[in-house]
Every structure is written in structure tokens, then in C-alpha cells.
Here is the input.
Amino acid sequence: MKRILSGVQPSGRAHLGNYLGAIRQHIEMAEKFEAYLFIADLHALTTTKDPQLMREQTYDLAVSYLALGLNPEHTVFFKQSDLSEHAELCWIFDCIVKMPFLERAHAWKDAQAKGKKETSVGLFNYPILQAADILLYQPDLVPVGQDQKQHIEMTRDIAITFNNTFGETFKIPEPHIKKEVAVVPGTDGQKMSKSYGNTIEIFADEKELKKQVMGIVTSSVPLEDPKDPKSCNVFQLYKLLGTDKEVKDLEDKYLKGGFGYGDAKKTLLAKILDHFSQAQEKYQELYPKKDYVYGVIEEGNKKAKIMASKTLEEVKKKVGYK
Ligand code: ADP
Ligand code: TRP
Here is the structure.
């Protein structure tokens, strides 16, 4: 059976981009593949320096995945910082990766371009830790959104370099990026991202959600005129959640005219509330069950450890530590 692996940083509440671009695939694919999924809290330290927030966001992400349908019987669901193997393998890769290779990374180049000269060593090293995360579990596929493509390509290069230097050790993984949801637009039309403040959060309460949906930027075409669905952010988001018939109906209303953006936003809001109503309920029910949620992660950590320590042992032999 093929194996998948992916990670998500606990860096804020899950939004529609995370869900459609990554979380939904993680949960669905776990029914067909052997699945490893983890909370990337080591990576999150590159941005979050508040320990209470780190704990809360980690817990929130775990509850969100479980509420959205992650089945712990079918997925090894674990927390990165509980397994020392990730940081250990990262160091070994640090010693075979050259500086110019990392200087090509988009995230690093963006930080430099924005004048953030004093970025941490951890941010510079971010792609190597991600390569360690992935290669420890020898997956076939890594399901992610488009923004992670470069990180997976770098992981493949690091695996090839290691294999060439020390002998065949790592399987070369493939990114798995679903075309229709590779880049989900945010409320301002740019890629939806916590760092742009343009998100629609799936577990926000109804009032907050309404504010986010009503804040979606639209054109100034008057209510009575026909509108172009393709260039409208509201329609683009609706398309990702509605059935074919629902999408066609909304498209017809846009093209006919007499249907304003306020109406379109109300239609989208109702769709989001309906789509996530079960998950919302589950989220409220699970949130107070701390023992259960931490128990799931404990179990996942144990299973992940078996795989991670096996790969690390092999690597230690290859480099001459054993
Ligand atoms: P953010 O950009 O909000 O910080 P993350 O980096 O935590 O999101 O992303 C977690 C996962 O969700 C990754 O696999 C990423 O590719 C995916 N993802 C994030 N935003 C989007 C988006 N707008 N469209 C598609 N996938 C996305
Ligand atoms: N960098 C990824 C993100 O921001 C999170 C991540 C860390 C990851 N390690 C990973 C994703 C390994 C896939 C595989 O979304």
C-alpha cells in the first residue's frame, strides 16, 4: 500500500485554503493509503514565540482535524516536537546541504526582499527540517497546496544528494497537489493565508464568519447588471464547495443580472455554514475532552516513533555513527 505524509503548522485557526488545499485531501487519502500526518510545531517556532499561544494553537489544530473527520484508526496523527528524530536528521542534512541551495528558497528570498535581514537561522533552515520530516517516513506522496511545491522539490534533491553520498537510503517522494484547489483565493483575491489576514476561518462563530464573508472584495458592477462569475472571488469560493447544480444555478444568476454581490455573499455564507455544520458540532463536543485529544496524539507519537527511529538508525549506519 502506498504511503502519504503531510504536516501543518499550528500557526492560527484553520481556514478554507488549508481545508480545501490540504486538510480535506489528508483526511480522504487516509482511507486509501497508509497515512502519517503531523502537527509541525518545530516549524511554528520560526514565527510563534508565545508558549501559551503555541499550546493553544497546537491543541486547536488537533481538535480541528478530528472534528473534520480524521480517523485515528486510519492515520498516524502525531506531534513533531515529541519525536527527537526530526531534529537529529535535520542536523545530518545540514551537513550535506550547501548554503546557495537554501538561498534559492522562496520563503527565504521573500523575507530578504521585505527587508527582514535579521531572520532566524531556523527560518533559513526551514526546508531542511521539512525534508527530514518527510524522508524519515519514506512516503510515496506528500499532499500539500501549491505553495509547498518548492519544499517538496528541495526534499527530493536532498534525498538524492544523501543517496549519492552514502548509498541508497531514501525513497524519492512526489508532491500531490490537486489542481482545482492548488491556490484558494482569500477575501482580497490573493492566495488565502494567515499571514495576509484574508482568511475565512472554518471554526469561527457565525458572527465572525459573516464578517469575513461580507468582507470579500468584489467589483463595482451595479446590482441590476450581469456579472462575470469567473473574475468574482465569491463565486470562485462557492465553486469549491457547492454541487455542480448549485454552482450552475449561481452562475446563471450572475449572468442574468438583478443579483447583487450582497446576495452572492449570503449564498456563500449559507453554504459554508451548512458544509461545516457537523464539523462545528464535533469541534464543540471535542474541545473540552483534553484527555481524549492528547491521548490520540500520544498513540500517534508511539506509532510514528517506530518508523522514524528505524529510518534514523539506518542513516546513522550509513554515515558511520554505528
Ligand atoms: P498559511 O499560508 O495560512 O500559513 P499554512 O502554511 O499553514 O497556511 O498551510 C497549511 C497547508 O495548507 C499547506 O499544505 C498549504 O499548502 C495549504 N494551503 C494554505 N493556504 C492555501 C491556499 N490558499 N490554497 C491552497 N492550499 C493552501
Ligand atoms: N511547511 C509546511 C506548511 O507551511 C508545513 C510542513 C512542515 C510540512 N513539514 C512538512 C508539509 C512536511 C508537508 C510535509 O504548510
Observations:
- The pocket of tryptophan (ligand 2) is lined by residues 6-9, 40, 43, 130, 133-134, 142, 144, 148, 151 (CB under 6 Å).
